[in-house]
Design brief:
With 125 residues, this protein is mainly alpha-helical. It has one domain. The protein is built from 5 helices and no strands. Helix 1 runs antiparallel to helix 2 and helix 1 runs parallel beside helix 3. The termini are far apart. It catalyses: fluoride(in) = fluoride(out). One of its GO terms (molecular function) is fluoride channel activity. It comes from Megamonas hypermegale. This is Fluoride-specific ion channel FluC. It is a multi-pass membrane protein.
Length: 125
């Protein structure tokens, strides 16, 4: 039960951060920049955190991993919002923006994780 509470705590903070970030950033235009931002930042952070926990701080608490990755980053990032916003772009005839949203979130997310991993390895090598 403690693990569930740790994940819930992380999710609540991550979800609140997602709300604040997307509310602010989505004012920039008619593209889901807020969701893109939290997804890319979340991917970058999970690259850093998972690499630190598995390669550098191997004795770190399992609770810390649950709090940060499953909880906080799970609450911060959002595949369902990304999917819904992509469908809304398609429904309104903004096909190129929908394709751009898919490409930026998926390819950008993979690149962000990779950069996070490389950054940690550069710092601790």
């Amino acid at each position: 039960m403690t693990k569930v509470l740790v994940v819930m705590l992380g999710c609540s903070v991550g979800g609140a951060m997602r709300y604040l970030i997307t509310t602010y950033i989505n004012k920039l235009g008619h593209f889901p920049y807020g969701t893109l931002t939290v997804n890319l930042v979340g991917c970058f952070l999970i690259g850093i955190i998972s690499t630190l926990l598995t390669e550098r701080f191997t004795g770190a608490s399992q609770y810390l991993s649950l709090l940060l990755t499953v909880g906080f980053l799970g609450g911060l990032t959002t595949f369902s919002s990304f999917s819904n916003e992509t469908m809304l772009l398609l429904k309104t005839g903004l096909v190129l923006q929908a394709i751009g949203n898919i490409a930026l979130n998926t390819i950008g997310g993979l690149i962000a994780v990779w950069i996070g991993i490389i950054l940690v390895r550069m710092i601790y090598s």
